[in-house]
Amino acid sequence: MSRSQFLFRLQQLDTGIDNAQNRIQEINRLLLDRTNLDEALKIHQELESNHASNLKALKIAEGDVALQNAKVEQNQRKLYGGSITNPKELEDLQLESISLAKYLHVLEERQLEAMFASDRSQSELDSAAAKLDKITRNMEAERILLNEEKSNLEADITALHEKKKRLLEKEALSDLSIYQTLRESASGIAVTLMIDSSCASCGASIPSAIEQEAKAPAKLAFCPTCKRILHPG
Asked: What is the Rg, in whole angstroms, of the alpha carbon atoms belonging to the chain?
């Protein structure tokens, strides 16, 4: 195995480990993300509070109508019960009857409006509850899939580390310090393919002398632009 081939193989394993670890970090972030759920919970709580207020207003309106109906019935009993014969009192009762009926109509309109408001808020609350339930179920399903993916990635990382260990046991380690230094300075990619006389990482053209050096098993050649180790593709 040539020097660049060994390092390229090592690079593939390290890249696989890096990608898996990065994905695990993303999965952990997704598992902790409650943005949609918290927003749905907030909306549901606000609508729940609004509906409770509407129910309270409806109950008060119903009580007002019931009380007014009792006053009307009492007035009608006096007016038509025959116990009162004084014309002036009867006239007063008649005027009171008209006033009570008018106000009863006003209270009944308020009760109707309160009923409509309660129905609307109940419908909105039901819709928010259904949305909250859907989000909760989707999050649970996604959580199961993400945890399964995370477990698979952890197994992949273990397998890649084992392959890396076996690779390092077979080959000389003289180039590891160069490799590690480049990994740190070149965004984790120390070794890149050379394809059609060009660097696959930065696209720079590779002079023929460096190209020939890159193809020599016992030598390491570097891209003149990005400084990565070149491996013939």
From this structure: 41
Domains and CATH numbers, the chain: 34-170 (1.10.287.620), 176-232 (no CATH)
* Torsion 114-119-121-125 (CA) sign: positive
Decide if 157 contacts 25 (C-beta within 8 A).
no
Amino acid present at 189: I
What pLDDT digit, counting tens, does each position of 91-128 carry?
999 999 999 999 999 999 999 999 999 999 999 999 99
* Cβ–Cβ < 8 Å for 162, 155: no
- Model confidence, pTM: 0.78
Which residues lie closer than 8 Å to 211 by C-beta, 6 or more apart? 194, 197, 221, 230
